[in-house]
Design goal:
By secondary structure, this protein is mainly β. The protein is about 0% helix and about 50% strand.
Length: about 120
């Protein structure tokens, strides 16, 4: 599976941004997909994930009510809608995919995109 993320950038606090991730090379609807992020000097952490059907969505507590992962199985695309961005959200964001059920663990995912930088200024 190849994953190509896009949509990052520099925004001010309070702004919104939508990340996209184009997938190829696998039956997309059979994969659980998600987003992780990594800030400088910190470990990669779970942000949000969605099941293969798109019915079940999971979010980290730090982004609850602000971020949501979604997918379009017809377009083989994953999205991360980010609202009310805060400087603490500054990180490289990675899209990821796995067979089977959704997980919040970094080591559970098999496929990773190249990452896209999101910078939030105060």
């Amino acid at each position: 599976v190849q994953l190509q993320a896009s949509g990052g950038g520099l925004v001010q606090a309070g702004a919104s941004l939508r990340l996209s991730c184009q997938a190829s090379g696998h039956t997309f609807s059979s994969l659980a997909v998600g987003w992780f992020r990594q800030a400088p000097g910190k470990a990669r952490e779970f942000v949000s994930a969605v099941s293969g059907s798109g019915v079940a969505t999971y979010r980290a507590s730090s982004v609850q009510g602000r971020f949501t992962a979604s997918r379009d199985n017809a377009q083989n695309t994953i999205y991360l809608q980010m609202n009310s961005l805060e400087p603490e959200d500054t990180a490289v964001y990675y899209c990821t995919a796995k067979t089977g059920l959704v997980s919040t663990r970094v080591d559970a995912y098999d496929y990773w995109g190249q990452g896209t930088q999101v910078t939030v200024s105060s």
